[in-house]
Amino acid sequence: MIKRVALFLLTLVCFSFITKQVDEEKFVEVNGKKQFYLSKGKGSPKVVFITGLGPTMDDFQELQNKLSKYTEVICYDRAGIGKSESFNNERSLENISNELNILIDKIGLDKPFILVGHSRGGLIARYFVNKYPKKVCGLVLIDPAIPEHKWLKKQLRTELERKEYDKYYESFCTDSTKYSLTIRNEFKATFTKDSADIAGKGLPLNIPITLVGSNKITKDKYSKQESEIKVELLKNYLKINPQIKLILTDKSGHYIHDDQPKLILNEVISMIKKVKS
Predict the structure, then answer these.
(1) pLDDT over 50 (residue 50)
(2) Among 175, 226, 242, 252, which residue's Cβ finds the most Cβ atoms within 10 Å?
(3) Quick check: 178 pLDDT over 90?
(4) At the topology level of CATH, where does 26-276 sit?
(5) pLDDT at residue 2, rounded to an integer
(6) Where exactly are the structural domains of the chain?
(7) pLDDT score for 256
């Protein structure tokens, strides 16, 4: 009898754990397609993560787990990535921002939240806050994409090197053996649409913003010059937005949240406290 009761209680515990895990992972319908997100923790202001080009929301799993002790944290898979269904539309900043806005409304985030974006996710966050300014109360951008940087890097190279440079980046748009159609279309948008879409859309003056950029120098012969160009572009934001906090690190490459997760964790916690005060 005691063994049966113990087995029954163990089954209940296991069932409860499985149910909890399933309940955290949810789908919402966005323009007729299933979009996947994961919410953890409780509290406000809530934090929404936007991944860079390609990675699923698992890219932020460690940070989400740790930040969920302080507030509610939402990660999601963009269309066609991870568990989310694809759209056949152009993967422009406009379309991705619209889809994120619908997802946020369906989740029920009725108060302004903090956006954390990495790489192209930082560019999406910048576009989003311009389109929906009342929905965002703080920004943390991790080595954000800067359209001008790609063009200026190309100018450092010889004519032959520029052709190789173009060929290398074009492969991201065409190589179906490495990248899904959705990711290839996102790459295409970075070359054809992003610069025009973001033109004239600066960073807001009325909310706190933290920029965390990598200035790590590699063995590549153009690395130092490329880093100097990026740092100058990041510093240019401060001329218009004096409230920006700029952090530069030479200990990480582009994926600062992987190389120095504690740095990003501390900055997001700091942003939460800043918004609360």
Answers:
(1) yes
(2) 252
(3) no
(4) Rossmann fold (3.40.50)
(5) 52
(6) 26-276
(7) 98
What are the structure tokens assigned to 15, written together?
């069932």
Over residues 129-172, the pLDDT tens digits come to: 999 999 999 999 999 999 899 899 999 999 999 999 999 889 98
Q: What is the pLDDT of residue 106?
A: 95
CA nearest 217: which of 249, 246, 245, 247? 249
Closest CA to 32 of 86, 70, 71: 86
How far is Cα 140 from Cα 119, in angstroms, rounded to an integer?
Answer: 11
Q: How far, in Å, CA of 138 to CA of 221, rounded?
A: 37
Cα 28 to chain centroid, rounded: 19
Q: Please give the C-alpha separations between residue 235 and each of 73, 238, 241, 272, in angstroms, as whole numbers.
A: 29, 5, 10, 23
The tokens for 70 are 């302080």
Strand, helix or coil at 53?
coil
- Three-class HEC string of 235-254: HHHHHHCCCEEEEEECCCCC
Strands 136-142 and 113-118: parallel
Cis peptide before 45 (omega within 30 of 0): yes
SS3 90: coil
CA distances to 98, 131, 132, 151, 194 from 94, in Å = 6, 9, 12, 22, 9
Q: Which residues pair with 116 in a beta bridge?
A: 49, 140
Mean pLDDT of 242-259: 97
Computed over every residue of the chain, the mean pLDDT equals 91
Q: pLDDT at residue 114 above 60?
A: yes
Asked whether the beta carbons of 85 and 96 are under 8 A apart, the reply is no
pTM for the whole thing? 0.89
Q: Is 194 exposed, middle or buried, given 0-12, 13-18 or 19+ CB atoms closer than 10 A?
A: buried
